[in-house]
Amino acid sequence: MAKYTADAEKLLQLIGGKENISSVTHCATRMRFVLQNPEDADVKEIEMLTAVKGTFTQAGQFQVIIGNDVQEFYNEFTRIAGVEGVNKDEVKTDAKKNMSILQRMLAALAEIFTPLIPAIVVGGLILGFRNVIGDIDLLQNGTKTIAEVYPFWNGVYSFLWLIGEAIFHFLPVGITWSIAKKMGTTQILGIVLGLTLVSPQLLNAYAVASTKAADIPVWDFGFTQIPMIGYQAQVIPAMLAGFMLAYLEIGLRKFVPNAISMIVIPFFALVPTVLAAHVILGPIGWKIGDAIAHVVYSGLTSSLSWLFAALFGFLYAPLVVTGLHHMTNAIDLQLMSQFGGTNLWPMIALSNIAQGSAVLAIIFLHKGNEKEEQVSIPATISCYLGVTEPAMFGINLKYLYPFIAAMIGSSIAAVISVSSGVMANSIGVGGLPGILSIKPQFYLIFAFCMLVAIVVPFILTIVFRKYNILNKVDDAPIRTFGAKEFRTSSRKADNL
């Protein structure tokens, strides 16, 4: 640990001293601080430290990129600073004091959907595979599917729906559980609430549109009747019900004596919530979800779809920087429920690829910068696998021009994707593997979109650097495709 002693001491000083640290932890590659006064941190000097490969601030946390030795650095830093580290959940809680109300709302949304993403990704891949073997006429001169010709694959097609149905039709169970977990309330009550929204005794949400009003089953209370409608795959009804249950339980805890809390709290939290979910929250949430989905879908299928796509493709990366991108998960899921797929998510995958390609161009331009490559190479790989934050905060935003180049490339690829009607089965791995979640009939055109998202940002980044477009900080020697290197520090962008 001695090799990090000097840098740890300097970092403590540059971050504003021990008294400026509210809490600290680390993840796989970064030190994560919540600072009393974030403006006291000398970012430029911190980034000059040998052990530091970059910094960025996100969700109220000041994060210092160290690399794979972060555990060793962290141990030395906490020893020198005389502070005790906390776990990541405690840091997130502490960081909320540095966040606006909007940022807190978005952070809450992210915390709800993040635990669900692995299942949704798997579900998307399963739906894509089922489409290939059971819904596309590939055999016997394009007249039969693989499942129709081969009994084995017919069995696979049928079996995989067991998993697909569990993930998407029963999604409200995951949402209400996740809300209970996030709010610190009783998780099993969240699960029970979710199950009451998708119970087999209810009319399946997918069958509501084709069922006559007189044929919809009801609970008859004599003085009133309540439609027995399920909320399979519905996002907003589940969220409204989940939050009502959580806040009821939290409120009841304040005045119900411990001696009877085990009986009183679950009953008076769960029963009113289930009733409200089917009488008020469910119908309202359904209409809100429908409205949002139709607005987005209409924007992506109207005569101005190219403009919508261009703007979304261009602005998605800045949304990630602000944290606003978390709202797209709910929209994607609503689109899947309403239209059997999402044309929004493919653009997100393309944006991730574009950011990675811009970093790839920086690697080419700055070849030999070993310190930067410790950030840029893993960041590129991370982008191509769907995680863009290391690339954007560690490289692209630092120089700006690669960030803009990626936004332009993403915008062009998004226009092609939307104009071609590309649809994904569901949310997937948001980088190169994202093609596995695309509906099979769009594989070729989406592959072309991916190529655009790779080539355009790469070329634009090199062009922007060569002519100092949007470049105010990068004056390092760069490489061309020939053997000759050139330096452009005397032609700063300030003169453009």
UniProtKB/TrEMBL annotation:
Q: Which residues form the PTS EIIB type-1 domain?
A: 5-87
Q: Which residues cross the membrane?
A: 106-129, 159-180, 187-209, 229-248, 260-284, 304-324, 344-365, 377-393, 400-422, 442-464
Pfam annotation, one family: PTS_EIIC
Recorded hits in InterPro entries, A to Z, give: Glu_permease_IIB (IPR036878), PTrfase_EIIB_Cys (IPR018113), PTS_EIIC (IPR003352), PTS_EIIC_1 (IPR013013), PTS_IIB_1 (IPR001996), PTS_IIBC_treh (IPR011296), PTS_Sugar-Specific_Components (IPR050558)
Show where the PTS EIIC type-1 domain sits.
107-480
Question: Record's Gene Ontology CC terms?
Answer: plasma membrane
List the active site. 27
Name the keywords, alphabetized. Cell membrane, Kinase, Membrane, Phosphotransferase system, Sugar transport, Transferase, Transmembrane, Transmembrane helix, Transport
The protein's topology relative to the membrane is:
Multi-pass membrane protein
Q: What is its main location?
A: membrane
Question: Which molecular function term from Gene Ontology is one that the record holds?
Answer: trehalose transmembrane transporter activity
Compartmental location: Cell membrane
GO BP, one annotated term: phosphoenolpyruvate-dependent sugar phosphotransferase system
- The entry's protein name is PTS system trehalose(Maltose)-specific transporter subunits IIBC
